[in-house]
Specification:
The structure is a homodimer of 305-residue chains. With 305 residues, chain A is of the alpha/beta class. Chain A contains 12 helices and 7 strands. The first copy, chain A, has helices at 24-36, 55-67, 84-96, 115-129, 142-145, 151-160, 175-185, 200-203, 220-229, 235-250, 254-266, 283-295, and strands spanning 7-10, 40-41, 102-104, 136-140, 165-170, 191-194, 210-212. Chains A and B meet through helix 3 and helix 4 of A and helix 3 and helix 4 of B.
Chain lengths: 305, 305
């Protein structure tokens, strides 16, 4: 049986080698580091450049992680795709490999589609995977998909599949939307993950489940401490510290900025590479980023070199 | 060497069986019928629900067509994908199978990406395929992708790859944009295909290359006659007739409406099926469609049953 997850998840950044192929070794090392600092692994999210990876690349990276001893129970792979057939392949594999949750984008090529069609997409995935171990987290990121996960869609899916629909990631950046999701559905166990640690202090007391946030890739320990201690005397300071780091990355193209930071802290310049259509940071931006992070004493403790 | 193509192309609709799997036999029969009425085959376009197909499904359907004797020189497969690796796989296959052109979407998940990143995507495809037989048609459909094929991108790609960048499909629906593309680039041989036969009489005298239009799926002979005879005394009547049919389909969800029409004219109800997130026409809409088509004497001459 699936159960709702809680905690602090990184949409894990994906390293590429000189041929732009995924670097499974470096990916695994990054995942081990994240887990050791208390983070869960939302591999193949937006910040993972998942849309820029083929299905086979995603399957191979997942297998490599598990063979290298990354614990399956820390995984929440992104398994959504425009093609139902791809989403089913990825979701089946994640469940078979022991992932306790999957984060599923709606199909995002066609716009203005009827809610009925989005419902059918999720319904077909659930019926075809056909496993009581499947726990689905709906991925609301309308600025990329233009296909929203509406309150009425959640309600309808929850009613039909109460033991499979476990929660949602809200990447809208609209706190009133996250709050509405939490207030409406968290009381019955639905796990709502806003996409930023900056909302932890606001969302956790209402019943939020944590966060799935880009910057967990670079600040897992700080964000995990905030998640654990938001309601202690240290809470406000931890929130401030996390917000400071978040703001620095948010002022830049975030994926490129995080990868450049991983490159500098690992000593491997290859980490800075992104797949098109994204572009790596230029040297001027990289220098500004380095200065801003230096000014707040940013560190990546024990980061694999 | 690639050469610019001309003519009337159908973004071929894709039939699905009861399990929502592509029906290769019916797909092939539809393609044979289109070719016999003078249409080229832009398989795996937007109207083909290409985004809803996996890479393997697209490869298999292409192979099946060719094994069944559909001429490779009538193919312009859609080979764009969010993942560079997928776009390369699909493009390599199309070139190896003898397709004289491929229609390539920009990667469409990330929004607001730099033009440099889109340039790099096309550049990587061209370099990796590495064939002088590759002819690329850039696919501008900003209402779905939100990632435009700008005039400056075309200019830059043409300058770097003059023997590979053969043309563009303009699905913006903005005639001033199609005209600007034609005026700027057609004189040097660049083939511009607006996405509607309703623009044939306007675009052909300026140097347009034809059209890649949804309704070629249901009205290939009428649109081919218009393409051939727009500048004869019959031209105005042919344009009117084509426009009448176009308008009827355009007033509905077009993919579902064309598939329902194929279902009724073939006697195979399965043709009406779409993959989620699209929805099939309901009976009320189907009835209105049938009446409207009947009123203009619509027929699909010799359509395979």
């Amino acid at each position: 049986m699936a159960h709702p997850l809680r905690g602090v998840y990184a949409p894990v950044i994906t390293p590429f080698d000189r041929a732009l192929a995924p670097d499974a070794e470096r990916f695994t090392a990054h995942c081990h580091w994240l887990v050791s600092h208390g983070a869960g692994l939302a591999i193949f999210g937006t910040n993972s450049e998942a849309a820029s990876l083929s299905v086979d690349e995603r399957l191979h990276l997942t297998d490599h992680l598990l063979e290298a001893g990354v614990p399956a129970d820390r995984l929440m792979p992104g398994t959504g795709a425009c093609a139902l057939s791809d989403a089913v392949t990825l979701t089946q594999h994640a469940v078979a490999q022991g992932a306790p949750g999957v984060l599923v984008l709606p199909p995002f090529f066609y716009k203005g589609v009827p809610e009925e069609g989005v419902f059918t997409y999720y319904s077909e995935i659930i019926e075809r995977v056909g496993s009581d171990k499947l726990g689905i987290y709906l991925y609301h990121i309308p600025q990329m998909t233009q296909v929203p996960i509406t309150m009425s869609l959640i309600e309808r899916l929850l009613k039909r599949y109460p033991h499979t629909i476990m929660g949602a990631k809200d990447s809208s950046g609209d706190w009133s939307n996250s709050r509405a999701m939490i207030e409406a559905f968290a009381p019955s166990g639905f796990a709502v993950f806003p996409a930023s640690e900056s909302l932890l202090t606001a969302s956790l007391p209402l019943g939020g489940a944590g966060c799935i946030s880009a910057t967990v890739n670079v600040n897992p320990a700080g964000i995990k401490a905030l998640f654990d201690c938001w309601n202690t005397p240290e809470g406000a300071v931890l929130q401030d510290q996390a917000d400071q780091i978040r703001k620095i990355f948010q002022a830049m193209p975030m994926i490129a900025a995080m990868k450049r930071t991983a490159a500098e802290h690992s000593g491997h310049a290859d980490w800075a590479r992104v797949r098109p259509p994204l572009c790596a940071l230029d040297e001027e931006a990289a220098s500004a980023l380095r200065s801003a992070l230096g000014a707040v004493g940013f560190r990546m403790e024990g980061y694999p070199r």
